[in-house]
Design a protein that fits this description.
It is a single chain. By secondary structure, the chain is an alpha/beta fold. It has two domains: 7-166, MoaB/Mog-like domain (Molybdenum Cofactor Biosythetic Enzyme, Chain A, 3-Layer(aba) Sandwich); 178-244, Alpha-Beta Plaits (2-Layer Sandwich). It is built from nine helices and eleven strands. A six-stranded mixed sheet has the order 2-1-3-8-7-6, with helices on both faces. 34% of the residues are buried.
């Protein structure tokens, strides 16, 4: 699959709870869907533990390779929330109390009638020079430094931060997508897919085999393009070739 004509992004999921299986990631699908609507394609997703070294290494690699890097998790107030400190080190800047973030959090907890204690104040520590990302749900902000956007791991909060972030990123053409399901093994359609790709240079085509039972198997063919007319042409071309080989599709 070739994503060269999209603006590419990567997603870094941070958290021991994801890697251990205790928590199922519910953020990636939403991120991928919203970015696709914005004309941004995810080329890589990676999951790392709550380890400063792993986060630093991942951030420094991904931010050089992709136009956008989106992270989720690890910006809360507990001892294992090391994302902000790690990203500060990756960019070689200080982690400091951000006055704007501090005021947002102070007002939030005062309005709740809850103590704004030392633990909660940790969430106001932001890498120097980073811009805050509003959190409409629970106040504690995310942040953006260069091409890296740092979100909370809680799905509802993450969605709020992503939606806020996309307001400031120029929207490109929406990625148009379609899926064709064939009831044949992948090996039987490989040459057809290769021919379709050669004849339709403005589309991406991916094939994904599935096997549910001995009578329910096949391949999902996902076709995408920034140009809807190119997408339609590729679909028509593919269907003609499948029909010539008597391969059923839907």
């Amino acid at each position: 699959m070739n994503n060269l004509f999209y603006e590419n992004a990567s997603v870094l999921i941070i958290g021991n709870e994801i890697l251990s299986g205790r928590t199922i990631d519910k953020n990636f699908n939403y991120i991928a869907t919203k970015l696709g609507e914005h004309g941004i394609s995810i080329s890589e997703s990676r999951t790392v533990s709550d380890s400063e070294e792993e986060i630093i290494n991942a951030i420094n690699e991904l931010r050089k390779r992709f136009k956008y890097v989106f992270t989720t998790g690890g910006i809360g107030p507990t001892h294992d929330d090391v994302t902000a400190a790690s990203i500060a080190k990756a960019f070689n800047v200080k982690l400091e109390v951000n006055n704007e973030a501090y005021k947002i959090l102070e007002d939030y907890y005062n309005n709740l009638g809850t103590e704004f204690n030392d633990i909660r104040q940790r969430m106001a520590r932001i890498p120097k020079g980073a811009k805050l990302i509003k959190n409409q749900i629970s106040a504690a902000p995310g942040f953006n430094i260069e091409n890296v956007y740092v979100f909370a791991g809680i799905p509802k909060v993450m969605k709020s931060m992503l939606d806020e972030t996309l307001k400031g990123i120029e929207k490109k053409d929406k990625i148009n997508k379609s899926t064709i399901v064939v009831d044949s093994p992948e090996g039987e359609i490989a040459k057809i897919l290769e021919k379709t790709i050669k004849n339709n240079i403005n589309v991406n085509i991916g094939s994904y085999p599935f096997y549910n039972t001995k009578d329910d198997f096949g391949v999902k063919i996902e076709i995408s393009s920034l140009d809807n007319s190119s997408l339609i042409k590729a679909i028509d071309d593919l269907k003609v070739q499948l029909s010539k080989e008597s391969i059923k599709y839907k």
